[in-house]
Amino acid sequence: MEPAVSGSPQPDPSPSSPSTSAAPPPQPSRYESQKRRDWNTFLQYLRNHKPPLTLARCSGAHVLEFLKYLDQFGKTKVHVSTCPFFGHPDPPSSCPCPHKQAWGSLDALIGRLRAAYEENGGRPDSNPFAARAVRIYLREVKDSQAKARGIPYEKKKRKRKPTVTSVRLDVDLTSNITGDGINRDSPATSGDVLPLG
C-alpha cells in the first residue's frame, strides 16, 4: 500500500477483496440463450458457405439454403407421396422416408433469427429472415408435412375473457296490474315517465 497524500493508508483495490467484487450478471433466459446459439450457428454457416458470405450480402435465398441444410439434422419422419404410410399419423412399421426439421421448429428458428438480425445492427427493411420467399417456404413446409404425416396444423385459438353485460331493470311493484297480466300504470303502456327513487 502506498501512503495517501494526507498520510493515511488507502485500501488495496485488488479484485479478491470482497468489497469490490461485483455480482455476477443474471443468466439469460432460455429464449435468449437459444437465440444466441441460433445466431452463431447461422454466422458459422455463412463462413463455411462456398464462397463465404458476409451478413450484408445474405438474402432470403441464402436463408432457404440454410433451412434445407438443417433438414439433414431433423428428427421428424416426413413420408413421400409414394410411401404406403403417406398421410398416416402413426405408421405401423418403419419406412425409408427422410427425416426433416419439423415445421414448428423451423418457424420458431426463423422468428429467433429475425429478432437476432435486428438486434445485431441489421435494418428491418433488409432482414433476409423476413423475406417473402422465406414466408412462402415455411407455409409450403407446413402444408406438405401436414399432408405427409396426416396431422393437420390448426392455429391455436386465443381464449377470450367472458364479457359481462349489465342490465338495469326498474320495476314498480306498487302499480296496478289487471287480471290480463298487463300493468296499465306502466310507463311502457301509458307513455308516462315515472321518477326513480
From TrEMBL:
One Pfam entry name: ALOG_dom
Segments for region (Disordered): 1-35, 176-197
Presence of the UniProt keyword Chloroplast in the record: no
PROSITE patterns found in the cross-reference section: ALOG
ALOG domain mapped to chain residues: 30-157
Main subcellular location: nucleus
Subcellular location: Nucleus
Keywords, comma-separated and alphabetical: Developmental protein, DNA-binding, Nucleus, Transcription, Transcription regulation
Annotated family: Belongs to the plant homeotic and developmental regulators ALOG protein family.
UniProt name for this protein: Protein LIGHT-DEPENDENT SHORT HYPOCOTYLS 6-like
Source species of the chain: Camelina sativa (False flax)
Lineage, highest ranks first: Eukaryota, Viridiplantae, Streptophyta, Embryophyta, Tracheophyta
